[in-house]
Amino acid sequence: MTNDRRQAGFKQRTRVAEARSTLLDATSPHGRSETVPLGDADGRVLAEPIDAPVPVPGYDRAAMDGYAVRAEDTFGASNRSPAVLRATAREGPVGPGEAARVHTGSDLPAGADAVVMIEHVEEVGDEVETFDAVAAGENVGAAGEDVAEGQRLYGPGHVLRPSDLGLCKSVGIESVTVHERPEVAVIPTGEELVQSDPEPGQVIETNGLTVSRLVERWGGVPRYRSIVTDDEQSLAAAFERDLDADVVVTTGGSSVGERDLIPEVLDDLGEVLVHGVALKPGHPVCLGVIEDTPVVCLPGYPVACIVNAAQFLRPVLKRVAGTTTEPFPTRRARLDRKIPSEPGTRTFARVRLTSDGEGVEDADADAGGEDAEGDAAREVAHIATPTRASGSGVLSSVALATGWVVVPEPREGLDAGELVDVQLWEVTP
Amino acid sequence: MTNDRRQAGFKQRTRVAEARSTLLDATSPHGRSETVPLGDADGRVLAEPIDAPVPVPGYDRAAMDGYAVRAEDTFGASNRSPAVLRATAREGPVGPGEAARVHTGSDLPAGADAVVMIEHVEEVGDEVETFDAVAAGENVGAAGEDVAEGQRLYGPGHVLRPSDLGLCKSVGIESVTVHERPEVAVIPTGEELVQSDPEPGQVIETNGLTVSRLVERWGGVPRYRSIVTDDEQSLAAAFERDLDADVVVTTGGSSVGERDLIPEVLDDLGEVLVHGVALKPGHPVCLGVIEDTPVVCLPGYPVACIVNAAQFLRPVLKRVAGTTTEPFPTRRARLDRKIPSEPGTRTFARVRLTSDGEGVEDADADAGGEDAEGDAAREVAHIATPTRASGSGVLSSVALATGWVVVPEPREGLDAGELVDVQLWEVTP
Question: Considering only CB atoms, which chain A residues are within 8 Å of B418?
Answer without folding.
Answer: 376
